Amino acid sequence: MPLPRDASEALRTEVAGTVTEDPDALTRFASDASHMVQLPVAAVAPRDREALQRLVAWARRWKIPLVARGGGSSLDGESVPPPGGVVVDFAGWNAIVEISDADRLVRVGPGVVNRDLHRILASHGLFFPPNPGSWTMSTIGGNAATNAAGPRSFRYGSTRNWVRGLEAVLGTGELLRVGHRTRKASTGPDLLGFLVGSEGTLGMFTEVCLALAPVPERRVGLVLPVPDDLSFRRTLPRLLASPAPAFSAVEYLDRATAAALNRFASGRLPEDSALLLTELESTAADEETDLERVARRFSETGFTGEPVVYADADQLWTLRGQSGEALEQEGVRIHEDVAVPWSRLDELFEGTRALAKRHDVLVRLFGHLGDGNLHPAFVVDPMSDRARIVRRDLVLLAKRLGGTLSAEHGVGLLKAPYLALEHGEVGVSVLEAIKRRCDPDGILNPGKLYPASPLVPGGAAS
Ligand SMILES: Cc1cc2nc3c(=O)[nH]c(=O)nc-3n(C[C@H](O)[C@H](O)[C@H](O)COP(=O)(O)OP(=O)(O)OC[C@H]3O[C@@H](n4cnc5c(N)ncnc54)[C@H](O)[C@@H]3O)c2cc1C
After folding, report:
1. What is the C-alpha to C-alpha distance for residues 105 and 162, in angstroms, rounded to an integer?
2. Which residue, of 46, 166, 228, 361, has the fewest CB within 10 Å?
3. Residue 306 Cα to chain centre, angstroms
4. Does the beta carbon of 445 lie inside 6 Å of ligand 1?
5. DSSP assignment of 96-163, as one string?
6. CA nearest 40: which of 87, 7, 73?
7. The dihedral of CA 198, 89, 76, 408: what is its sign?
């Protein structure tokens, strides 16, 4: 259904920016990487903050939902438009507002692509550590709104650890500026933290201030063949025993994922084996000794294979970032995301394989091993009831093992039914109270993160 004529006219006269209502042009906003599809009624690229505030006032008046959109790469329907919704396109909000070498900070528009920022900051000898697999397409606004992470989060943590400030237009139209340029602040509860990971449901970010880290002199990627039946419970503590080599990433690909990646990206990953991918931070002077130390640690851990070395680890992460696409080529449609404590990783691997067998679906296993974060990837129709049940059982498994139902992708539409499993009923009611204050009319990305939605394939889980 198109926008009512009066609403369309009001939108064009009241909001400065580009408005698209042509259904063909809107198809590129209809989905994210979750395979769910909902055509928006319009897409708006507001010119500036004031235009965005006017857009919110317009949406409140006409009771039309808005969904902020960055790179559209989310995996649980976070950026799929709500029915009858208008997409707020932030791709053009990609200004680098300030780079402060002295304070190791950068202020950016939310539409800056993660990898572009990485390249820009390189000449300053600085970097924003979270490097999601989607870093060539996902935006800083999207990363902040989903609390994204990546291989380097093993050493540096998720996006939340690096967001110093946010400017956001709330669902009331108010402009909220939160955060500090200082490294510390002890001024009550963490307002900034409420916005990080809020998936566009509380406010739309207009500027993000990020803390930065100095780029290590050397960053070497190491890819090591490992046995398929590895016990992570035994191996990880040994690999990372103190004094641990300066690993900034510890990743895992099962044999099938590694093979798919080699086929898709003409990779030079070792064949016919599961793989451990690590990144070692070092200096020019110490690199040789550090690599020898790592080789010793690998062999003490029981790994006998010869590592493939990537002198520039960025190349390894760009390759690794294509795992999802490589698996999609081979029929994978669900990219899951759970995490458990290290001591329960073996049970997570076993339990996931068992549930895949029980539901007769193929599964590929890879993920950010050092963070206990597994991405089971299932070959199953994402809109089927079986997909819903597989996801539900995986969520229940992760919770039973003392883990989380989403380590980095977010909640979106697909995991909204399980929010109380994570936070409890009281926790959810606190979240809902915050939502009511920030978005009293419920126009910001309804159906995501909070309640179950009719868009969830197969309906809410029982
Ligand atoms: C191949 C592939 C690999 C991936 N690998 C990883 C990974 O390693 N780690 C990881 O964490 N994720 C990963 N993801 C998931 C996804 O890329 C991340 O969630 C990413 O942070 C989304 O960013 P985006 O710009 O694409 O956001 P979008 O998909 O456009 O939006 C995501 C959410 O953020 C909100 N949002 C966007 N912009 C704003 C704004 N300006 N203000 C407020 N809210 C906003 C949206 O409304 C939505 O709720 C991967 C996805 C793919 C397809």
Report:
1. 9
2. 228
3. 32
4. yes
5. EEEEETTTTEEEE-TT-BHHHHHHHHHTTTEE-----TTTTT-BHHHHHHHT---TTHHHH--GGGGE
6. 87
7. negative
Contact 151, 253 (CB under 8 A): no
pTM to 2 decimals?
0.95
Instruction: Report all structural domains of the chain as residue ranges with CATH numbers, in order of start.
Output: 5-89 (3.30.43.10), 96-214 (3.30.465.10), 218-320 (3.30.70.2190), 331-409 (3.30.70.2740)
Q: 373 in ligand 1 pocket by Cβ < 6 Å? A: no
* Spatial separation of the C-alpha atoms in residues 168 and 174, rounded to whole Å: 8
Please give the backbone phi and psi of residue 176, each rounded to the nearest 5 degrees, phi first: -110, 130
- Cα–Cα distance list, 44 to 13, 89, 108, 374 (Å): 13, 6, 20, 36
CA distances from 415 to 78, 154, 418, 424, 448 (A): 10, 24, 6, 14, 9
Task: Assess whether the C-beta atom of 248 lies below 6 angstroms from ligand 1.
Answer: no
**CA gyration radius for the chain?**
22
Instruction: Going residue by residue through the chain, which has 462 residues, state the pLDDT in tens, using 9 for 90 and above.
Output: 899 999 999 999 999 999 999 999 999 999 999 999 999 999 999 999 999 999 999 999 999 999 999 999 999 999 999 999 999 999 999 999 999 999 999 999 999 999 999 999 999 999 999 999 999 999 999 999 999 999 999 999 999 999 999 999 999 999 999 999 999 999 999 999 999 999 999 999 999 999 999 999 999 999 999 998 889 999 999 999 998 899 999 999 999 999 999 999 887 788 789 999 999 999 999 999 999 999 999 999 999 888 999 999 999 999 999 999 999 999 988 999 999 999 999 999 999 999 999 999 999 999 999 999 999 999 999 999 999 999 999 999 999 999 999 999 999 999 999 999 999 999 999 999 999 999 999 999 999 998 654 333 333 332
Q: Whose CA is nearest to atom 21 of ligand 1?
A: 143
Distance 139 CA to ligand 1 centre (A): 7
Is the distance from the beta carbon of residue 71 to the nearest atom of ligand 1 less than 6 Å? yes
Q: Is 75 in the pocket of ligand 1 (CB under 6 A)?
A: yes
Give the distance (Å) from ligand 1 centre to CA of residue 379: 22
- The residue whose CA is least distant from atom 34 of ligand 1 is 142
Question: CA-to-CA distance for 207 and 151, rounded, in angstroms?
Answer: 25
Nearest CA to ligand 1 atom 18: 74
Say if ligand 1 is within 6 A of residue 411 CB.
no
Residues in a beta bridge with 247:
280
Asked whether 82 lines ligand 1 (CB < 6 A), one says no
